[in-house]
Amino acid sequence: MIIDPEYRIADIDKRIYGSFLEHLGRAVYGGIYEPDHPQADEGGFRTDVLGLVRELRVPIVRYPGGNFVSGYRWEDGVGPPERRPRRLELAWKSVEPNRVGTNEFARWARQAGADVLMAVNLGTRGVDAARNLVEYCNHPSGTYWSDLRAEHGYREPHGFRTWCLGNEMDGPWQIGQKTAAEYGRLANEAGKAMRGVDPAIELIACGSSYRAMPTYADWEATVLDLAYDQVDYLSLHTYYGNSDGDTPNYLARTLDMEAFIREVAAVCDYVKAKKRSKKTIGLAFDEWNVWYHSIEPDKRQTPWQEAPPLLEEAYTFEDALLVGCMLITLIRNADRVRIACLAQLVNAIAPIMTETGGGAWRQTIFYPYLHASLYGRGTSLRPIIHSPRYDSKDFADVPFVEAAAVHDEEEETLTLFVANKDADSSMPLECDIRGFGDYAVVCHLVLESEDPKASNTAARPDAVVPHSGGDAANDDGTLRATLGKLSWNVIRLR
Ligand code: AHR
User: Fold this and answer.
1) Looking at the domain assignment, is residue 343 inside a domain?
2) Residues 214, 350: one domain?
3) N or C: which end of the chain has fewer CB within 10 A?
4) pLDDT digits 0-9 by tens, 260-308
5) CA 122: distance to chain centroid?
6) ipTM score of the complex?
7) By percentage, how much of the chain surpasses pLDDT 90?
8) Any signal peptide, and if so, which residues (predicted)?
9) Are residue 212 and residue 301 in the same domain, yes or no?
10) Residues with beta carbon inside 6 Å of ligand 1?
């Protein structure tokens, strides 16, 4: 490998380490919010969970959905809690008690040190509800909606800067699904009115729900054709799984993620060219993760429960390795991907799990996310990698070694995130870092496991945890390290 300070990709937008909390399963109720829990604060939020979120230094959290937002009346979630309605929530077939809404979440996010990435409902609602929500959240005072916010106890505006124009509007599962033309027009008009209220906001339009959607690419082109001037970002979503137990093929899925990013960027630039526009649309990968363990059990849940245990994935070590590789992909595409959200944060497809009335623990995927969020800030450098390769069921020429490099010029640190996907043997890493003079290795963290299917549970929360026993060393401008078989490595130099 060769890493040089001059091989710059881009300054990383810290928002690529964002996450997501939806009114779904036990993410909000029974996750971040559990008023009867011994560690709940006066607002009902669990302080132990908040502590774990803070540990991750999550810069931004998308809220309140997801599929949920497409049927949500935001007005139900503000004002005196005892007057808030209980509603049938159609996206997840649950009952929504509305005890947590925009204001409570804004306060929680502030305590977590995170900004809010707010989503408006463009499924069952439209321009009016969207612009009213912006006024309620961001306008200082002296108007109906801003004064109502003050009446509700929040005098200061929340100042949410980035907004999603709906969610996965191409999906047949979405409440109020639209064609690309219907959605493009609506996104444009909603965006125009929202910006009319607050010209400082940034807007994310929905791209395809995933790369295999039948309307993929046409959807992106049509939506942007109709809404290019109003939007700043286009969204991408992807979830991977290993339901057929083919680990080499599973770990190769970052090639799909990479191609997805390149293709969507190409469609954005095609529309830019057509419009002779000076503006470049950024990418918001605002849902990404592993999701497959819970799909079958979730089908057996009875409908209309409040906070049912949905999407509760017990992540394995190999899932953490893929999540690490997905983070590497995001860092290497930092010139185009400016926002990304690990979906999600607590209990539902999440790095943090809780027991109702009990403890909270870190899933395996917590660790690569933690490492990237803490050490992946600065300039993304392009590593030149010569790695042995393999073929799998769906992919050819898959490099065993994937890596990203981040240079923090202020702190004078260089961090390498390196994954070895080879299940059979360790790999010697030799990396030319002559451009980094006398930087010395300050730590080599490793996440590995004898059992790729090992998980952390309430009873064994530390089954898979990183150790600092890696052997990386700077040997006169050549970084040498052993990359254990199936391992996630974080090598930090200063
Ligand atoms: O994150 C879970 C769900 O996945 C979201 O609600 C939806 O947008 C996606 O399909």
Assistant:
1) yes
2) yes
3) C
4) 999 999 999 999 999 999 999 999 999 999 999 999 999 999 999 999 9
5) 21
6) 0.99
7) 100
8) none
9) yes
10) 22, 65-67, 167-168, 287, 343-344, 349
Q: Write down the pLDDT at residue 52.
A: 98
Residue 338 — very low, low, confident or very high, per pLDDT cuts 50/70/90?
very high
Q: What range defines the domain where residue 115 resides?
A: 12-377
Q: Are residues 419 and 354 in the same domain?
A: no
CA of 67 to the centre of ligand 1 (A): 6
Catalytic, 22? Answer no
Are 466 and 367 spatial neighbours (Cβ–Cβ below 8 Å)? yes
Q: In terms of domains, do 273 and 396 share one?
A: no
- Sign of the C-alpha dihedral computed for residues 389, 393, 395 and 401 taken in this order: negative
Ligand 1 atom nearest the C-alpha of 20 is 1
Q: Which atom of ligand 1 is nearest to the CA of 344?
A: 1
Give the Å distance between the CA of 311 and the centre of ligand 1: 10
Residue whose Cα lies nearest atom 8 of ligand 1: it is 66
pLDDT band at 437 (very low <50, low <70, confident <90, very high): confident
Centroid of ligand 1 to alpha carbon of 423 (angstroms): 31
**Best residue among 19, 20, 21, 67 to mutate for probing ligand 1, ranked by most atoms within 8 Å of CB:** 67
| Mean pLDDT over each residue of the chain, to the nearest integer | 98
Residue 91's closest CA among 175, 164, 170, 26?
Answer: 175
Q: Are residues 180 and 70 in the same domain?
A: yes
What CA–CA distance (Å, rounded) separates 137 from 134?
5
Query: 9-58 pLDDT, tens per residue?
Result: 999 999 999 999 999 999 999 999 999 999 999 999 999 999 999 999 99
From 89, 93, 164, 168, the mutation candidate for ligand 1 (largest count of ligand atoms within 8 A of CB) is: 168
Predicted confidence at residue 438, as pLDDT, reads 87
End residue of a domain, out of 319, 344, 377:
377
Indicate whether 324 and 435 sit together in one domain.
Answer: no
Identify whether 318 is a catalytic site residue.
no
